[in-house]
Amino acid sequence: MLLKYITFRKIKLFFLLYLSYHLSYFIKKDFRWGRYIALSIEPTNSCNLSCTECPTGTNGLTRQKGNFSTTAFKKLIDQKAKDLIYLNFYFQGEPFLNKNILEMIKLASQKNIYTSTSTNAQLIDKELAKNIVDSGLNRIIISIDGTSQEIYEKYRIGGQLEKVINASKFLIEAKKDSKKNNLKIVFQFLVFKHNEHQIHKIKKLGHDIGIDKVEIKSAQIYNFKNSTNITSITQFSRYKKDSNGFYLIKSKLKHKCWRMWHSGVITQDQNLVPCCFDKDADYTIGNLNSNSISVIERSSLYKKFRQNISSERSSIPMCQNCSEGLNLRKKKLQLRFILSQINGFLICFVFF
Question: Whole-model pTM above 0.85?
Answer without folding.
Answer: yes
